[in-house]
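User: Good morning. I'm curious how T4K would be positioned relative to this chain. Could you predict the structure with it bound?
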Amino acid sequence: MAARKPIYVTQPELPPLEEFLPYLRQIWDARLLTNSGPFHQMFEAALCEHLGVKHISLFTNATIALVTALQSLRITGEVITTPYSFVATAHSLMWNGIKPVFVDVDPVTLNMDAARIEAAITPQTTAIMPIHCYGTPCDVEAIQRVADNYNLKIIYDAAHAFGVRREEGGMLRSVLNHGDLSVLSFHATKVFNTFEGGAIISPDAKTKQRIDHLKNFGFVDETTVVATGINGKMSEFNAALGLVQLKHVDDAIARRGAVEARYRAQLGEVQGLRMLQRDAGMTPNHSYFPVLLGPGYALGRDGLYKRLREEGVMARRYFYPLISDFPMYRNLPSADPALLPVARAAADQVLCLPIYPALADADVDRIAAIVRSGASRRSTAAAPVSPPALAIVD
Ligand code: T4K
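Assistant: Good morning! Here's the predicted structure, ligand included:
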C-alpha cells in the first residue's frame, strides 16, 4: 500500500496558476518590480474595500510591519503584551529596544485579559500590544478604556484576524478598525496569503503616510530622509498574487468553516477536551482549530500530539512554549510563571488540528477519530466511526 501523504496543520491556498500568469506577464512587460508599483497600489485599494478599513500599508511580512508600527507611533519604554502568541509579537518590541511586560490571558478567549492590564502599568508604559489570538477578537472596548485612562497607544497584532468582523451598533464591522494600528500577516500559513506579506491598518492618511515613509528607508522624496526607516516594501509579485487571492478568499473561508463545523460535530462529547467558543455576533475566519486537552483527557496533550504524528497528522502546539519561556524573555519579572497561570495551562494543553480549505472530509473524520480514541484509557488505535451529519455552528 502506498504511504499516506502527511497532513500538516495547514496547506497554503493558491489560485489556479493560469489566473496568475497574465499578472506576471504584465510585470514582465512593465519591468516595474517594486517600490509602490501599479499592483501594489491596486492591492492596497482592493484590500481596504474588502476588509472595510480606510488606510492600508503593505509590507514584506507582519514582523517588519509590527516593528514599523511601533516606530511610527514612537513607542518607547515598556509595552504590555501577551505571552500567548507567536514570538514575533514580543520580538518586534525588542527590535525597538522596548521592554515587554507580559500579562496573563483570559481563560475563555486566550486573548490578553483586559482586567489585568492596569496592574501592569508603570510610569514607563507607553502602549499595549494584544493579539486577536486564532482570530478571536480581543475585548477591544475594555482595552480601549484602559488605554484612554492612562493615555496609552494600542497596536493590535492582528496576524490571525484577516476578515474577522464584529457586530457593532447593529452593523458588522472589521475588528481591524480598533486601537491605533492593526497589523496583518499574509504569510503562507495564514487564511489569506501572498507567499510572504503583511500590512498595517491606520485610521488616517497622515499616519499611513508616515508608515509608508518608514517602510521605504524614511525617504520622502529623492533627497529627503525623515526617519531611520527600514526596507519593508511588498514587491509587485506579492501584490499581484494578493489581488488574485482576494477573489477566492471568501470561498476559502467558507470551506474552512465547513471543516471546523465537522470537527465540532465530532468532538463535542470528548472527555477532557475543550473547544473555544465564540460570541454569536462575530464573523470568524476559521484560521486555526485549537483544542485544549485538560487533565480529564486520558492520552494527554503530548500523547495525542505523538499519536497523530504516528498517523501522519502534523498537528501543532500553537502556542507552546509561551513567549515568556524563551531565553531572551524568561528573566523579565513579568515572565514569572506564577503570574501567568492561565497562559501556562493553555500552552500545556493546546493542540491546533489541521484546518485548510483542501482538507478532505474523510481526513477530518480520521483525525477526529484519533482524537476521540485518545479520550479512552483502553483504546490504543483510532476506532472506526461513521461521521455524523454536518452541523453548522456559526
Ligand atoms: N504575530 C502572530 C500572532 C503570528 O502568528 C505571526 C506568524 C506573526 C506575528 C508574524 O507574521 P509573519 O512575519 O510571518 O508575516 C508559522 C508561520 O511561519 C508564522 O508566520 C506564523 N505566525 C506561525 C503561527 O506559524 P511555523 O514555524 O509553525 O511554520 P512552519 O514552516 O512550520 O509551517 C507550518 C506548517 O505549514 C508546515 O508544517 C507545513 C505547512 N506549510 C508551511 C509553509 C511555510 C506549507 O504547507 N507550505 C508552506 O509554504 O510558523
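The first strand starts at residue 7 and ends at 8. The longest helix spans residues 236-267.
Let me know if you'd like a different ligand tried.
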